[in-house]
Amino acid sequence: MSLLDLKLLRDLRALKSQALAVALVMACGLAMMIMTRSLIASLENTRDTYYRENRFAEIFARLKRAPNSVAAQLAAIPGVAAVQTGIALQVTLDLPGVIEPATGLVQSLPEQGELVLNRLHLRSGRILLGRESMGEILAGEAFAEANNLHPGDRIAAVLYGRRQNFRVAGIVLSPEFVFEAPPGAALPNNKTYGVFWMPYKELATASNLDGAFNNISLRLAPGASEAEVIAAVDQVLRPYGGRGAYGRESHPSHTRVRDEIKILQGLSIGFPLVFLSVAAFMTNAVMSRQITLQREQIAILKAFGFSNWEIGGHYLKFSLVIVVGGTVLGTVGGVALGHRLVEMYHLFFRFPALEFHLATSVVVMAIIVSMVAAIIGVVGAVRAAVRLPPAEAMRPEPPSSYRPALVERLGLGRAFTATFRMALRNIERRPARSLLTMGALALATGILVVPNAFRDGIGHVLDYQWDMIQRQTVFVALIEPGPARALADFRALPGVVLAEPVRGAAVELRAGNHFRRLTITGLPARAELYRVIDASDRQLTLPAQGLVLSAKLAEVLGVKPGEAISVRVLEGKRPQFTVPIVALAEDFAGTAAYMEIGALNRLLGEGDRVSGAYMSVSAGEWVNFLEAVKASPRAVSVVVKNRIREGFRETTAQSIGLLQQIYLTFATVVAFGIVYNSARISLSERQRELATLRVIGFTRGEVGAVLVGELAVLTLLAMPCGLVIGAGFARLILASVNTEFVRLPLILTPANYAFAVLVVAVASLVSALLACRRLDQLDLVGVLKARD
Amino acid sequence: MATATPPSELSPSSVFHARALTKTYGDGDAVVRALAGVDLDCSAGEFVVVLGASGSGKSTLLNLLGGLDTPTSGTLFYRGWDLGRADEAGLTRYRRDAVGFVFQFYNLIPSLTARENVALITEIAADPMAPEEALQLVGLGARMDHFPAQLSGGEQQRVAIARAIAKRPAVLMCDEPTGALDVRTGMAVLEAIERINRDLGTLTLIITHNSVMAGMADRVLTLSDGHITGEKRNATRVAATSLAW
Ligand SMILES: Nc1ncnc2c1ncn2[C@@H]1O[C@H](COP(=O)(O)OP(=O)(O)OP(=O)(O)O)[C@@H](O)[C@H]1O
Ligand SMILES: [Mg+2]
Questions:
Q1: Chain A within 8 Å of B116 (Cβ-Cβ)?
Q2: A108 C-alpha to ligand 2 centroid (Å)
Q3: What is the mean pLDDT of each run of 10 residues along chain B (245 residues)?
Q4: Does B121 contact chain A (CB < 8 Å)?
Q5: pTM score of the predicted model
Q6: How far is CA B139 from CA A550, B134, B156, B189, B201, in A?
Q7: What ipTM did this prediction achieve?
Q8: Architecture in CATH of B44-70+97-242
Q9: Which residue of A297, A356, A684, B11 has the fewest C-beta atoms within 10 A of its own C-beta?
Q10: Where are the domains of chain A?
């Protein structure tokens, strides 16, 4: 080992806690980078393999009913490689031991052989094949887990009005339901919604679809145009009540996985960038101080003939040790974090096996990136050192010159104590360093605001959705739109206080080049239970004519109130018409179009019909009500508000909890690292000054206050900036997740701000106190002996 | 301050009372006896000059008397209070209330002006004079708002003296106060110290390598190898300005 390397080791030992502080901040950025990059690779690989092996389809469509012979027509469309037809049916489920029913989607298994597309992955039990096994069913894993269902358990389903008992034969996964939730749902609710499969014959008989299908999936031949095939499919299915085909980019499960990867990609750049910048700044501060202290040593080395490169290399090695430490810590942290996240993903996504694999290429990339950050941090300091002519470096640095601080120059300094002046003037003497320190502390404060803004935003949306808009106890849907007297039947159910009709119609809205397929919701003009709310939180009265759109939908379609929009109905008599947009509604989940129910029925031309009802039910009759509704042949899905609400709360609590932990850790590390590092550098630079204060009778506490005062001022200045930055971060992140599926309002509460301030204050204080312990080691006698 | 039983022979004007005062550094073969059993009494208002070769233990003695360090053995009393056995907090209290220090390298706070460097002490002292008054005493009334970097060495040293005396200390400890200064500036600094001793009646101990300064003193101590080897009382004190350098 060369003597320079020996010196390196001794210097490192002296600076070990500071090096650790820098390495920790670096590790945060690297952990995030390693975790996100590896996870993206894992997700993409797992998803692609799953899609390929289980033959996930590329085009999907629902229709009313087509005879099985139409399948051949579909297969004959140029560009179609494979066709899977089948039946998909909404059912109400009755679970043993749970009084509230759940909703399920049952799909058919082919009569012969396996599914051609969207093949199932068996988790436990056995798969159902062909005609065998009457009365058996396969259940999706998410629902089964949430409801503690196992192979062999029994479950009752109301199929087309007939209650039937089934035995769970197996638990399965499907590439169609990686995200196992009803279409358009922002979050899964596995207790109340599940997917199932059963043999075609039984399902067809139950739903009067024998010899027919109402659901198709297609796979494209290589090089085929998706748009052309979709158009051709729509053409073929039009006579059979086709609801419009769509590709993977509109597939509810696929888009959720895709969006998650997009979010990870954002995090994989933003986070590391910010943290590594802070680490670069810290490295620079440590190295600058080290080089100042070793001015004379550098001069001597140069006088003895060491080259600038050798000396520069020596200090670079120093920071490389930090990089290696940071990378090791970052990799360990990234792997741990990755495993936690994969666990959380299990709440949302169901893959045969989603495992966290540390991508080695990512670790190499992390080393390179952090090395670049460290080199950026060191180069400036080292350049100053090697530029120094040896003779000049031998002389001690000239005494530092100060001037009154800005606030004092403005004449506001009279009341300040001498020690407070010291703090202010020190801050002003090194403006760049002070600003960067403040920046890092502001950053720590800011990132703490984000997860709580998420939490509060979600809380607001849930309250808004369930208290402001939907005030029903339960929503009951009919198998298919029925006559208005169905409403009277609902009203006659036990305990029903209020029942209001709803009529849904699948449509395509078109304005210029933009179009969207969705369901128009027809409601009473001024309903009590399902209320359409505008941006200023007032209930809108639905006019006798025209549409009310979600503000987001109007934005997507590029239309404004007062303009007209063309509506093509995708069911029944398929009328087309143009209606004016009369108002915009405010909502946060999905997009909606509302119309007064009478007006909608007139346009549909099928007479007065209802698709279901929103009902408020008295608590005393709740069990009786549910018994009656489960037995009712026409009710196809029963959605109990509080069950859904509870499910959302649990899911968000878990995911936000993890988010909070991550952000809390990172913010604490930054605040802690930056304060500790600054305090140590300050202590080193002002050792003589502080020892002098001790000699002339200042207590340890008073000297500590002098040391910490400067940092306290910076921390206090940084916090408000941090809150502003945090609000900005939250706004930015919320804007990036603001889609047609979910929108989160920016809710910033005093409690959120107070929490951020408190965490940073405590982290700063603790680290400052830790650094202050070094004051005990001040050499009171030594400092008097010589100049520094 | 806690009072220990003072030795019976103590006179009322006694400020320091040391017996067999010893300070050793290191242990085993590497042990250094910086102070090897010193007996010393100093009384209020005295002006004491300490001479001796480099390494003879002068600074060590001053550091013990000034409460910067504790003796390895022996006894040391300050006005009947057992300084030798005081704890960290007690020593801080003592330095804060009773001692003024002047060092060879001034040790001013660079971020504070002359006035503020003095105010630093007057803010925490029990019965201080105004910082302006202290600076007048050392002849720096005109440079009060200058920062250390804007002052010459001698001026900085006089600020250090003003800082040391502003709290009206009972003792003033000066370790080579003129060591870094030329003759003329050194003289101005000594004049300031002399005036403090005369006007405020402060017990003053000065360490120096310069035996010419011995003429200023009431008493001259010579140290060698950790022992007091000479003690001389001057019948009359020579004014700083008339010292023959
Ligand atoms: N911290 C220490 N560790 C070990 N030895 C020490 C220490 N401080 C002082 N010494 C030794 O104690 C002896 C007396 O030192 P002291 O500083 O009192 O000398 P001095 O008379 O003030 O010398 P100078 O005139 O050079 O300032 C010296 O031999 C010195 O080497
Ligand atoms: Mg000395």
A1: yes
A2: 98
A3: 48 87 88 92 94 92 91 94 90 90 84 89 86 88 89 88 90 88 82 88 91 90 93 88 72
A4: yes
A5: 0.80
A6: 82, 9, 12, 10, 19
A7: 0.81
A8: 3-Layer(aba) Sandwich (3.40)
A9: B11
A10: 1-59+256-394, 60-255, 430-470+639-788, 496-617
